[in-house]
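User: Could you go from structure to sequence for me? I need the amino acid at each position, not a summary. Structure tokens:
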């Protein structure tokens, strides 16, 4: 159960991190209004979480899809370990070769 809560919390945090400040303010205002004057059903909570994940995913993909949005973003790109640097070129070359071979097979 703790794992599920942690997973959900991390998803919400990552989604909110990718949101614009206006989106975050809207969510905060909605939560404040709900806590102070109403209640949320499980269905409302599910819909809200799904919407937050959609917005976060769309914003993250849009950001990473820009020119150098992935390769120059140290927050999301995981570099080769320095000890593996001598093998990096061979690895990249073999991946490209396999992709071209698979593409030509189809």
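Assistant: Here is the amino acid at each position, in order:
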């Amino acid at each position: 159960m703790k794992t599920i809560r942690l997973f959900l919390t991390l998803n919400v945090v990552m989604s909110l991190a990718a949101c614009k400040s206006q989106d975050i303010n809207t969510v905060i205002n909605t939560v404040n209004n709900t806590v102070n004057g109403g209640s949320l059903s499980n269905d409302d909570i599910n819909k809200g979480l799904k919407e937050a994940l959609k917005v976060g995913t769309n914003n993250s993909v849009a950001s990473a899809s820009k020119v150098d949005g992935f390769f120059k973003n140290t927050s999301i790109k995981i570099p080769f370990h320095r000890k593996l640097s001598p093998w990096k070129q061979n690895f990249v070359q073999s991946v490209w070769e396999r992709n071209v071979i698979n593409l030509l097979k189809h």
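One structural detail worth keeping in mind: The mean pLDDT is 75.
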